[in-house]
Amino acid sequence: MRVARGLILTSVLVLLGAACAGSDETTPSPSPSPQATPIARPSEPTAPAPPTPAGSDQPTDPAPGALVIVNGTLIDGTGADPLPDAYVVVRKDRILEVGSGSPQIPPDAAVVDAEAGTILPGLIDAHTHSARGLIEPGDLRVELDGFVPWLREGVTTLRDVGTVPLLFPAILELAAELEHKHKAPRIVWSGPIVTATGGYPTTVLDYAAVAQEVASAEEAVELVDELADGGARIIKLGLERGYRSDEGWPLLSLDEVTAITQAAHQRGLLVTAHVTSLDEVRLALDGGADDLAHTPIEPLPDEMIREMLQRGITMATTTNIWGPESSVAATNAKRYLDAGGTVAVATDFDCCGQAPGMEAMLQEMQWLSQVAGFTAMELIVAATRNGAIVSNLANELGTIEPGKVADIIVVEGDPLLNLQALVSTSIVIQAGTVVVGGR
Ligand SMILES: [Zn+2]
Fold it and tell me: 373 C-alpha vs ligand 1 centroid, how far in Å?
Protein backbone atom coordinates (compact mmCIF):
# COMPACT_ATOMS: atom_id res chain seq x y z
CA MET A 1 0.00 0.00 0.00
CA ARG A 2 3.03 2.24 -0.26
CA VAL A 3 1.74 4.03 -3.36
CA ALA A 4 -1.66 4.69 -1.83
CA ARG A 5 -0.09 6.06 1.35
CA GLY A 6 2.08 8.42 -0.64
CA LEU A 7 -0.83 9.56 -2.72
CA ILE A 8 -3.05 10.28 0.25
CA LEU A 9 -0.35 12.20 2.04
CA THR A 10 0.57 14.21 -1.03
CA SER A 11 -3.02 15.18 -1.72
CA VAL A 12 -3.59 16.22 1.86
CA LEU A 13 -0.42 18.29 1.86
CA VAL A 14 -1.46 19.96 -1.36
CA LEU A 15 -4.90 20.70 0.05
CA LEU A 16 -3.48 21.98 3.32
CA GLY A 17 -0.99 24.11 1.44
CA ALA A 18 -3.78 25.54 -0.69
CA ALA A 19 -5.83 26.24 2.38
CA CYS A 20 -2.91 28.05 4.02
CA ALA A 21 -2.08 30.07 0.94
CA GLY A 22 -5.71 31.03 0.60
CA SER A 23 -6.06 32.35 4.10
CA ASP A 24 -5.82 36.02 4.90
CA GLU A 25 -2.42 36.59 6.47
CA THR A 26 -3.28 40.04 7.75
CA THR A 27 -6.31 39.27 9.79
CA PRO A 28 -6.52 35.82 11.29
CA SER A 29 -10.28 35.74 11.30
CA PRO A 30 -12.38 33.80 13.73
CA SER A 31 -13.65 30.54 12.37
CA PRO A 32 -16.59 31.02 10.03
CA SER A 33 -17.69 27.51 10.95
CA PRO A 34 -21.14 27.03 12.37
CA GLN A 35 -19.37 25.95 15.56
CA ALA A 36 -18.35 29.58 16.19
CA THR A 37 -18.90 30.44 19.84
CA PRO A 38 -20.86 33.43 21.08
CA ILE A 39 -17.70 34.83 22.68
CA ALA A 40 -16.89 38.38 21.68
CA ARG A 41 -13.73 38.09 19.62
CA PRO A 42 -10.75 40.09 20.78
CA SER A 43 -9.46 42.84 18.55
CA GLU A 44 -6.85 42.35 15.87
CA PRO A 45 -3.22 41.64 16.74
CA THR A 46 -0.81 44.47 17.19
CA ALA A 47 2.91 44.42 17.61
CA PRO A 48 4.16 46.20 20.72
CA ALA A 49 7.49 47.49 19.47
CA PRO A 50 9.12 48.24 17.20
CA PRO A 51 6.24 49.31 14.97
CA THR A 52 5.31 46.75 12.33
CA PRO A 53 7.32 47.57 9.21
CA ALA A 54 5.21 48.89 6.37
CA GLY A 55 3.95 46.08 4.24
CA SER A 56 4.42 43.44 6.91
CA ASP A 57 1.38 41.32 7.50
CA GLN A 58 2.47 39.44 10.60
CA PRO A 59 2.58 40.29 14.27
CA THR A 60 6.14 41.29 15.07
CA ASP A 61 8.22 38.50 16.54
CA PRO A 62 9.79 39.05 19.94
CA ALA A 63 11.18 42.55 19.85
CA PRO A 64 14.82 43.13 20.67
CA GLY A 65 13.53 45.41 23.40
CA ALA A 66 11.48 44.47 26.40
CA LEU A 67 7.75 44.31 26.88
CA VAL A 68 6.24 45.43 30.17
CA ILE A 69 2.69 44.53 31.12
CA VAL A 70 1.33 46.91 33.74
CA ASN A 71 -1.85 47.78 35.60
CA GLY A 72 -3.38 44.38 36.28
CA THR A 73 -3.93 41.89 39.05
CA LEU A 74 -1.65 38.90 38.59
CA ILE A 75 -2.76 35.31 39.10
CA ASP A 76 0.51 33.58 38.36
CA GLY A 77 -0.69 29.97 38.02
CA THR A 78 1.19 28.67 41.09
CA GLY A 79 -1.81 28.97 43.39
CA ALA A 80 -0.32 31.99 45.19
CA ASP A 81 -2.67 34.81 46.21
CA PRO A 82 -3.41 37.34 43.47
CA LEU A 83 -0.89 40.17 43.27
CA PRO A 84 -2.58 43.57 42.86
CA ASP A 85 -1.07 46.38 40.81
CA ALA A 86 1.25 43.88 39.17
CA TYR A 87 3.72 44.18 36.35
CA VAL A 88 5.47 41.57 34.23
CA VAL A 89 8.64 42.30 32.29
CA VAL A 90 9.24 40.15 29.20
CA ARG A 91 12.35 40.05 27.07
CA LYS A 92 12.29 38.13 23.81
CA ASP A 93 10.20 35.04 24.47
CA ARG A 94 10.84 34.83 28.23
CA ILE A 95 9.53 36.35 31.44
CA LEU A 96 12.28 38.42 33.02
CA GLU A 97 10.72 39.90 36.12
CA VAL A 98 7.43 39.91 38.02
CA GLY A 99 6.46 42.43 40.68
CA SER A 100 3.98 44.88 42.14
CA GLY A 101 4.02 48.67 42.06
CA SER A 102 5.96 50.80 39.60
CA PRO A 103 8.39 48.87 37.45
CA GLN A 104 11.64 50.21 36.11
CA ILE A 105 10.69 50.41 32.47
CA PRO A 106 13.71 49.76 30.27
CA PRO A 107 14.17 52.52 27.66
CA ASP A 108 13.67 50.08 24.80
CA ALA A 109 10.48 48.62 26.25
CA ALA A 110 6.94 48.67 24.94
CA VAL A 111 4.28 49.03 27.60
CA VAL A 112 1.09 46.97 27.49
CA ASP A 113 -1.72 48.29 29.68
CA ALA A 114 -3.80 45.54 31.25
CA GLU A 115 -6.44 48.18 32.05
CA ALA A 116 -7.16 46.80 35.52
CA GLY A 117 -7.85 43.32 34.17
CA THR A 118 -6.43 40.02 35.41
CA ILE A 119 -3.06 38.82 34.13
CA LEU A 120 -2.82 35.04 33.81
CA PRO A 121 -0.63 32.43 32.16
CA GLY A 122 -2.04 31.28 28.82
CA LEU A 123 -4.43 28.43 29.47
CA ILE A 124 -3.64 24.83 28.53
CA ASP A 125 -6.16 22.23 27.39
CA ALA A 126 -4.65 18.91 28.44
CA HIS A 127 -6.71 16.64 26.19
CA THR A 128 -7.64 17.54 22.64
CA HIS A 129 -7.86 15.97 19.21
CA SER A 130 -7.34 19.31 17.59
CA ALA A 131 -6.42 18.10 14.12
CA ARG A 132 -8.86 15.24 13.76
CA GLY A 133 -11.16 17.35 11.63
CA LEU A 134 -8.41 18.00 9.13
CA ILE A 135 -8.92 14.67 7.46
CA GLU A 136 -12.67 14.72 7.47
CA PRO A 137 -14.49 15.71 4.32
CA GLY A 138 -15.48 19.32 4.15
CA ASP A 139 -13.92 22.72 3.87
CA LEU A 140 -10.29 22.44 4.93
CA ARG A 141 -10.04 26.19 5.23
CA VAL A 142 -12.68 26.12 7.92
CA GLU A 143 -10.90 23.32 9.73
CA LEU A 144 -7.59 25.16 9.68
CA ASP A 145 -9.21 28.29 11.00
CA GLY A 146 -10.38 26.05 13.82
CA PHE A 147 -6.96 26.51 15.43
CA VAL A 148 -7.39 30.29 15.57
CA PRO A 149 -10.02 30.65 18.31
CA TRP A 150 -7.90 28.73 20.82
CA LEU A 151 -5.02 31.15 20.59
CA ARG A 152 -7.04 34.33 20.21
CA GLU A 153 -9.24 33.46 23.18
CA GLY A 154 -6.25 32.71 25.41
CA VAL A 155 -5.77 28.93 25.29
CA THR A 156 -2.13 29.11 24.25
CA THR A 157 -1.24 25.42 24.50
CA LEU A 158 -3.04 22.21 23.56
CA ARG A 159 -1.96 18.72 24.52
CA ASP A 160 -3.12 16.71 21.54
CA VAL A 161 -3.50 13.04 22.44
CA GLY A 162 -4.65 11.33 19.28
CA THR A 163 -3.87 12.15 15.66
CA VAL A 164 -4.15 10.07 12.49
CA PRO A 165 -0.75 8.33 12.24
CA LEU A 166 -0.52 8.55 8.47
CA LEU A 167 -0.91 12.32 8.58
CA PHE A 168 0.99 12.99 11.82
CA PRO A 169 4.16 14.36 10.20
CA ALA A 170 2.20 16.64 7.87
CA ILE A 171 -0.13 17.90 10.58
CA LEU A 172 2.72 18.52 13.00
CA GLU A 173 4.58 20.54 10.40
CA LEU A 174 1.49 22.51 9.45
CA ALA A 175 0.63 23.31 13.06
CA ALA A 176 4.19 24.45 13.76
CA GLU A 177 3.98 26.78 10.78
CA LEU A 178 0.65 28.19 11.96
CA GLU A 179 2.05 28.65 15.47
CA HIS A 180 5.01 30.50 14.04
CA LYS A 181 2.56 32.82 12.25
CA HIS A 182 0.61 33.25 15.51
CA LYS A 183 -2.44 31.54 14.06
CA ALA A 184 -2.38 28.50 16.32
CA PRO A 185 -1.53 27.71 19.90
CA ARG A 186 1.51 25.66 20.77
CA ILE A 187 0.52 22.02 20.36
CA VAL A 188 2.18 19.21 22.29
CA TRP A 189 1.64 16.05 20.28
CA SER A 190 1.31 12.40 21.09
CA GLY A 191 0.69 11.33 17.51
CA PRO A 192 -1.62 8.30 17.29
CA ILE A 193 -3.18 6.29 20.11
CA VAL A 194 -1.06 3.18 20.60
CA THR A 195 -3.17 0.09 21.17
CA ALA A 196 -3.39 -3.69 20.90
CA THR A 197 -4.45 -5.29 17.62
CA GLY A 198 -8.19 -4.74 17.48
CA GLY A 199 -8.11 -2.63 20.64
CA TYR A 200 -9.64 0.75 21.45
CA PRO A 201 -9.99 3.06 19.52
CA THR A 202 -10.14 0.81 16.45
CA THR A 203 -13.47 -0.24 18.01
CA VAL A 204 -15.03 3.22 17.76
CA LEU A 205 -16.03 4.50 14.34
CA ASP A 206 -15.16 8.16 14.91
CA TYR A 207 -11.74 7.44 16.39
CA ALA A 208 -10.54 4.33 14.56
CA ALA A 209 -8.34 6.43 12.26
CA VAL A 210 -6.25 7.76 15.14
CA ALA A 211 -5.28 4.26 16.35
CA GLN A 212 -1.93 2.61 15.74
CA GLU A 213 -1.93 -1.09 16.59
CA VAL A 214 1.10 -2.96 17.86
CA ALA A 215 1.32 -6.74 18.05
CA SER A 216 4.30 -7.13 20.39
CA ALA A 217 6.51 -5.29 22.89
CA GLU A 218 9.27 -5.10 20.26
CA GLU A 219 6.95 -3.50 17.75
CA ALA A 220 5.72 -1.09 20.40
CA VAL A 221 9.24 0.01 21.33
CA GLU A 222 10.06 0.59 17.68
CA LEU A 223 6.95 2.74 17.35
CA VAL A 224 7.84 4.81 20.42
CA ASP A 225 11.24 5.57 18.89
CA GLU A 226 9.62 6.47 15.59
CA LEU A 227 7.17 8.83 17.28
CA ALA A 228 9.89 10.42 19.39
CA ASP A 229 11.97 10.97 16.25
CA GLY A 230 8.89 12.46 14.59
CA GLY A 231 8.32 15.11 17.27
CA ALA A 232 6.00 13.49 19.83
CA ARG A 233 6.55 14.56 23.44
CA ILE A 234 3.89 12.29 24.86
CA ILE A 235 2.90 8.69 24.15
CA LYS A 236 -0.81 7.94 24.32
CA LEU A 237 -2.04 4.45 25.14
CA GLY A 238 -5.57 3.26 24.44
CA LEU A 239 -6.61 0.99 27.33
CA GLU A 240 -10.30 0.25 27.25
CA ARG A 241 -12.23 -3.02 27.40
CA GLY A 242 -15.51 -1.42 26.37
CA TYR A 243 -17.52 1.70 26.91
CA ARG A 244 -19.11 1.54 30.35
CA SER A 245 -18.87 -2.26 30.26
CA ASP A 246 -16.48 -5.06 29.37
CA GLU A 247 -17.08 -5.68 25.70
CA GLY A 248 -13.96 -7.76 25.36
CA TRP A 249 -11.92 -5.21 23.44
CA PRO A 250 -8.31 -6.43 23.52
CA LEU A 251 -5.86 -4.57 25.77
CA LEU A 252 -2.11 -4.18 25.49
CA SER A 253 -0.45 -6.71 27.79
CA LEU A 254 1.34 -5.60 30.94
CA ASP A 255 4.66 -6.45 29.24
CA GLU A 256 3.76 -4.26 26.28
CA VAL A 257 2.67 -1.31 28.43
CA THR A 258 5.84 -1.66 30.51
CA ALA A 259 8.04 -1.80 27.42
CA ILE A 260 6.33 1.28 25.99
CA THR A 261 6.70 3.36 29.16
CA GLN A 262 10.34 2.36 29.57
CA ALA A 263 11.13 3.22 25.96
CA ALA A 264 9.24 6.50 26.25
CA HIS A 265 11.03 7.50 29.46
CA GLN A 266 14.39 6.74 27.85
CA ARG A 267 13.49 9.26 25.17
CA GLY A 268 12.26 11.84 27.68
CA LEU A 269 8.59 11.34 26.81
CA LEU A 270 5.67 11.03 29.22
CA VAL A 271 3.04 8.33 28.82
CA THR A 272 -0.65 9.10 29.16
CA ALA A 273 -3.25 6.34 29.19
CA HIS A 274 -6.82 6.48 27.98
CA VAL A 275 -8.74 4.69 30.75
CA THR A 276 -12.31 4.69 31.94
CA SER A 277 -12.59 1.81 34.44
CA LEU A 278 -10.56 0.85 37.49
CA ASP A 279 -8.99 -2.27 36.00
CA GLU A 280 -7.70 -0.19 33.12
CA VAL A 281 -6.24 2.25 35.67
CA ARG A 282 -4.64 -0.80 37.33
CA LEU A 283 -2.93 -1.75 34.07
CA ALA A 284 -1.74 1.81 33.49
CA LEU A 285 -0.27 1.99 37.00
CA ASP A 286 1.38 -1.43 36.87
CA GLY A 287 2.84 -0.64 33.45
CA GLY A 288 4.42 2.61 34.70
CA ALA A 289 2.27 5.20 32.87
CA ASP A 290 2.65 8.79 34.08
CA ASP A 291 -0.80 10.19 33.48
CA LEU A 292 -4.44 9.25 33.06
CA ALA A 293 -5.83 10.99 29.98
CA HIS A 294 -9.31 10.80 31.51
CA THR A 295 -10.56 10.81 35.06
CA PRO A 296 -12.05 7.33 35.59
CA ILE A 297 -15.82 6.99 35.61
CA GLU A 298 -15.90 4.49 38.47
CA PRO A 299 -15.32 5.76 42.02
CA LEU A 300 -11.59 5.65 42.84
CA PRO A 301 -10.93 3.64 46.01
CA ASP A 302 -8.89 5.52 48.65
CA GLU A 303 -6.17 2.90 48.37
CA MET A 304 -5.80 3.50 44.64
CA ILE A 305 -5.63 7.24 45.22
CA ARG A 306 -2.82 6.69 47.71
CA GLU A 307 -0.95 4.49 45.27
CA MET A 308 -1.37 7.01 42.46
CA LEU A 309 -0.01 9.72 44.71
CA GLN A 310 2.98 7.61 45.67
CA ARG A 311 3.75 7.02 42.02
CA GLY A 312 3.26 10.68 41.13
CA ILE A 313 0.51 9.93 38.61
CA THR A 314 -1.18 12.96 37.07
CA MET A 315 -4.72 13.12 35.73
CA ALA A 316 -6.52 15.07 33.00
CA THR A 317 -10.16 15.83 33.81
CA THR A 318 -12.43 15.50 30.72
CA THR A 319 -15.18 14.98 33.30
CA ASN A 320 -18.24 16.50 31.66
CA ILE A 321 -18.31 14.27 28.59
CA TRP A 322 -19.56 11.04 30.18
CA GLY A 323 -23.28 11.64 30.55
CA PRO A 324 -24.55 9.84 33.66
CA GLU A 325 -20.99 9.12 34.87
CA SER A 326 -19.82 12.72 34.55
CA SER A 327 -20.42 13.53 38.19
CA VAL A 328 -18.50 10.43 39.35
CA ALA A 329 -15.57 11.55 37.20
CA ALA A 330 -15.70 15.12 38.55
CA THR A 331 -15.82 13.83 42.13
CA ASN A 332 -12.83 11.56 41.46
CA ALA A 333 -10.90 14.53 40.12
CA LYS A 334 -11.64 16.61 43.22
CA ARG A 335 -10.80 13.77 45.60
CA TYR A 336 -7.48 13.26 43.85
CA LEU A 337 -6.72 16.97 43.96
CA ASP A 338 -7.62 17.20 47.65
CA ALA A 339 -5.37 14.24 48.40
CA GLY A 340 -2.47 16.17 46.85
CA GLY A 341 -2.63 14.86 43.29
CA THR A 342 -1.94 16.85 40.14
CA VAL A 343 -5.09 17.37 38.07
CA ALA A 344 -5.15 19.24 34.75
CA VAL A 345 -8.21 20.73 33.06
CA ALA A 346 -8.96 18.91 29.81
CA THR A 347 -11.90 18.93 27.39
CA ASP A 348 -11.40 16.03 24.95
CA PHE A 349 -12.26 18.48 22.16
CA ASP A 350 -13.82 17.67 19.70
CA CYS A 351 -15.31 14.45 20.93
CA CYS A 352 -18.63 15.81 22.04
CA GLY A 353 -19.71 18.83 20.10
CA GLN A 354 -17.51 21.36 21.89
CA ALA A 355 -16.64 24.53 20.04
CA PRO A 356 -12.91 25.23 19.79
CA GLY A 357 -11.47 27.75 22.21
CA MET A 358 -12.03 29.09 25.68
CA GLU A 359 -15.72 28.15 25.77
CA ALA A 360 -14.78 24.44 25.85
CA MET A 361 -12.41 25.07 28.77
CA LEU A 362 -14.97 27.16 30.61
CA GLN A 363 -17.62 24.45 30.19
CA GLU A 364 -15.34 21.85 31.80
CA MET A 365 -14.24 24.23 34.56
CA GLN A 366 -17.79 25.23 35.43
CA TRP A 367 -18.78 21.57 35.61
CA LEU A 368 -15.91 20.82 37.99
CA SER A 369 -16.86 23.82 40.08
CA GLN A 370 -20.59 23.11 40.26
CA VAL A 371 -20.50 19.34 40.68
CA ALA A 372 -17.29 18.71 42.60
CA GLY A 373 -16.63 22.00 44.37
CA PHE A 374 -13.36 22.98 42.71
CA THR A 375 -12.51 26.55 43.69
CA ALA A 376 -11.75 29.07 40.97
CA MET A 377 -8.10 29.18 42.06
CA GLU A 378 -7.83 25.38 41.92
CA LEU A 379 -9.27 25.44 38.42
CA ILE A 380 -6.91 28.15 37.24
CA VAL A 381 -3.89 26.23 38.54
CA ALA A 382 -5.27 23.07 36.94
CA ALA A 383 -5.66 24.90 33.62
CA THR A 384 -2.19 26.45 33.69
CA ARG A 385 0.62 24.98 35.83
CA ASN A 386 -0.82 21.47 35.90
CA GLY A 387 -1.52 21.55 32.18
CA ALA A 388 2.17 22.28 31.63
CA ILE A 389 3.15 19.40 33.92
CA VAL A 390 1.10 16.83 32.01
CA SER A 391 2.29 18.32 28.70
CA ASN A 392 5.91 17.55 29.60
CA LEU A 393 6.65 21.28 29.73
CA ALA A 394 6.66 21.94 33.47
CA ASN A 395 9.90 23.92 33.32
CA GLU A 396 8.85 26.03 30.37
CA LEU A 397 5.20 26.94 30.72
CA GLY A 398 2.15 27.23 32.91
CA THR A 399 3.14 29.93 35.40
CA ILE A 400 4.17 33.57 35.27
CA GLU A 401 7.61 33.35 36.84
CA PRO A 402 11.02 34.59 35.71
CA GLY A 403 12.56 32.25 33.16
CA LYS A 404 9.31 30.80 31.85
CA VAL A 405 8.11 31.25 28.26
CA ALA A 406 6.00 34.43 28.04
CA ASP A 407 2.60 32.95 27.20
CA ILE A 408 0.48 35.51 29.03
CA ILE A 409 -3.13 36.60 28.75
CA VAL A 410 -5.23 39.37 30.23
CA VAL A 411 -8.94 39.00 30.85
CA GLU A 412 -11.42 41.67 31.85
CA GLY A 413 -12.76 41.25 35.36
CA ASP A 414 -11.84 38.76 38.05
CA PRO A 415 -12.11 35.03 37.26
CA LEU A 416 -11.85 34.27 40.99
CA LEU A 417 -15.20 35.99 41.45
CA ASN A 418 -16.73 34.71 38.25
CA LEU A 419 -15.11 32.12 35.98
CA GLN A 420 -17.04 33.61 33.09
CA ALA A 421 -14.38 36.36 33.05
CA LEU A 422 -12.12 33.86 31.27
CA VAL A 423 -14.03 34.38 28.04
CA SER A 424 -13.37 38.12 28.04
CA THR A 425 -9.78 37.91 26.83
CA SER A 426 -8.40 41.35 26.01
CA ILE A 427 -4.72 40.58 25.49
CA VAL A 428 -2.86 37.45 24.34
CA ILE A 429 0.92 37.24 24.32
CA GLN A 430 2.41 34.15 22.70
CA ALA A 431 6.08 33.51 23.48
CA GLY A 432 6.72 37.22 23.95
CA THR A 433 4.73 38.41 20.95
CA VAL A 434 1.49 40.33 21.38
CA VAL A 435 -1.03 38.60 19.14
CA VAL A 436 -4.24 40.10 20.53
CA GLY A 437 -4.87 43.56 21.96
CA GLY A 438 -2.19 45.60 23.69
CA ARG A 439 -3.03 48.88 22.07
ZN1 LIG B 1 -9.64 11.80 23.67
Answer: 24
State the distance from the centre of ligand 1 to the C-alpha of 347, rounded, in angstroms: 8
419 and 309, same structural domain? no
Per-residue pLDDT of 124-135, as tens digits, reads: 999 999 876 655
Mean pLDDT of the chain: 85
> How many angstroms is it from 403 CA to the middle of ligand 1?
32
Q: Are 308 and 340 in contact (CB under 8 A)?
A: no
**Residue 105 belongs to domain spanning:** 66-119+405-436
- CATH code for the domain of 335: 3.20.20.140
* Nearest of 239, 133, 234 to residue 190 by alpha carbon: 234
User: How remote is the CA of residue 161 from the centroid of ligand 1, in Å?
Assistant: 6
pLDDT digits (tens, 9 = 90+) for 228-252: 999 999 999 999 999 878 899 999 9
Cα gap 18→11, rounded to integer Å: 10
Residue 367 counted as domain residue: yes
How many Cβ atoms are within 10 Å of 83's Cβ, its own excluded?
18
Do 164 and 272 sit in the same domain of this protein? yes
pLDDT tens-digit map of 43-87: 333 333 333 333 334 454 444 579 999 999 999 999 999 999 999
Asked whether residue 177 falls in the same domain as residue 323, the answer is: yes
Q: How far does the centroid of ligand 1 lie from the alpha carbon of residue 415, in Å?
A: 27
Kindly give the distance from the C-alpha atom of residue 427 to the centroid of ligand 1, in angstroms, as a whole number: 29
Per-residue model confidence (pLDDT) at position 352 = 87
Ligand 1 centroid distance, CA of 156 (Å): 19
The CA 274 to ligand 1 mean position distance, Å, reads: 7
* Interval between CA 141 and ligand 1 midpoint (Å): 23
Q: How far is the CA of 130 from the centre of ligand 1 (A)?
A: 10
Distance 22 CA to ligand 1 centre (A): 30
298 and 428 share a domain?
no
Question: Are both 107 and 15 inside the same structural domain?
Answer: no
Q: How far is the CA of 266 from the centre of ligand 1 (A)?
A: 25
59 is a domain residue: no
| 8 Å CB contact between 120 and 88 | no
Give pLDDT, residue 170. Answer: 85
Residues 101 and 133 in one domain: no
Domain assignment present for residue 293? The answer is yes
Q: Residue 296: name the closest of 271, 319, 323, 313 by CA.
A: 319
In angstroms, what is the span from residue 162 Cα to ligand 1's centroid? 7
How buried is 203 (Cβ within 10 angstroms: 0-12 exposed, 13-18 middle, 19+ buried)?
buried
Domain count, the chain: 2
Residue 57 lies in a domain: no
| 256 within 8 A of 213, measured Cβ to Cβ | no
Same domain? For 283 and 143 the reply is yes
Return the pLDDT at 147.
82
145 and 258 inside one domain: yes
Weakest mean pLDDT among 40-44, 81-85, 197-201: 40-44
Instruction: Measure 203 CA to ligand 1 centroid, in angstroms.
Output: 14
pLDDT for 6 beyond 70: no
What pTM, to 2 d.p., does this model score? 0.86
